[in-house]
Write a structure and sequence with these properties.
The structure is a homodimer. By secondary structure, chain A is mostly helical. The longest helix of chain A is centred in the first third of the chain and has 30 residues, at 3-32. The model of chain A has no long low-confidence stretch (mean pLDDT 87). The first copy, chain A, contains nine helices and no strands.
């Protein structure tokens, strides 16, 4: 494989894992909506699911524009993403909300970071279509209210947030270990290259943003 | 209550039952998507769910435009709609597809019929936002292929279609029996009035359209 082919394959895999992640997130959110305590919050979760689905459509369209079979590419990442989902199945409404918020935020951070290392067109697409779902105020309010009503909830949800972060990192590591082309893109196959110190800083930025989100929810990171 | 108040209340209830129906349909479709045999068909079902959700948003916006608490109105119809959903829970992917197609078609027929009896603005909204989800070709293809591969499937799915229709009619009857204002709108509280002979013809048109859809799937009605 030439460097160009390797880069192209890396981009395809990156779009594929993001697309499968959005599909999975969208459908899990729709399932979690069944646990909503009120109709209004059930609709809000539906809105988050719909936003994830819109991201999915943009990623499928981009993959098809590259002449790829979007579904075949996505399929490669189904086992890893589903494993993450199964290991982080919310047991109640609040865990579902925290997962939606933390997952959405992590994904948006990751999109932003990664788009800097891609060619301009792919980077712009990813920044444009894969921002957060824009429903974080609703989650923050619901979680803060629940913690206020029963402070013991805070400890349990803080633990849950750490577990989500740990599982996300361990699945991300597996993707990097198994997918050379994708790793190549993340590590410098793109326009600008990334060194190990930069990986460390990226990791720091992502965990800091995660701590910020947990604090916004009124929880210890 | 004056006639005008009665009509307004009837419209509000009509929009409420439609809205709750769309929410419920959207989330059941998202759940059924987990049974999809391929990733492409899973995404297709997600598209149907997203279209139902867009209808829901339009109905909520209209209710709020009328100064109503959309969620409180929807809540009134939750038990009836969920009862229908629980009595018609698909056991497999094909039953889910037939339910999506038949339910979507019935809803679209009903919207079309009912909009003729409403004031112009409400009627136009309902016609505009509540058409079918436009994904019927996909369902027709999948069901026909399954029947071709195993003709015994046809008998089971034909029975299923009849059961869906029966449950839908019996729930619709309950709504009419329990909601005077809504019934008033359906029976002539609106711009033009409807007599019993017209109800009979409406019923005939809806069952004929249902038979046509079953035939399109390659199934006996």
């Amino acid at each position: 494989m030439t460097d160009d082919e390797m880069y192209r394959q890396g981009i395809v895999e990156l779009l594929g894992v993001l697309a499968y992640g959005e599909l999975s997130a969208s459908q899990r959110l729709a399932e979690d909506a069944a646990m909503a305590p009120t109709l209004a919050s059930r609709v809000e979760l539906g809105r988050m699911a719909r936003a994830e689905f819109a991201h999915l459509e943009a990623l499928i369209a981009h993959l098809e524009g590259l002449g790829e079979d979007a579904y075949a590419v996505m399929e490669m990442f189904a086992p890893m993403v589903e494993k993450f989902q199964n290991r982080t199945r919310p047991r109640d409404w609040l865990e579902g909300l925290v997962k939606a918020y933390v997952g959405d935020g992590l994904a948006a951070d990751f999109y932003r970071e990664i788009s800097a290392f891609l060619d301009e067109k792919t980077g712009a697409l990813i920044q444009e279509v894969c921002a957060g779902t824009g429903h974080s105020d609703f989650v923050i309010e619901e979680v803060r209210r629940a913690v206020q009503a029963d402070p013991r909830v805070a400890g349990r949800l803080a633990l849950w947030g750490r577990r989500l972060m740990g599982e996300a990192l361990s699945q991300a590591q597996r993707v990097v270990a198994e997918r050379d082309a994708l790793t190549g893109v993340l590590m410098g196959g793109g326009e600008s290259s990334i060194d190990l110190a930069e990986v460390g800083r990226l990791f720091t930025r992502i965990t800091e943003a995660h701590s910020g989100r947990m604090a916004a929810l009124g929880l210890d990171a």
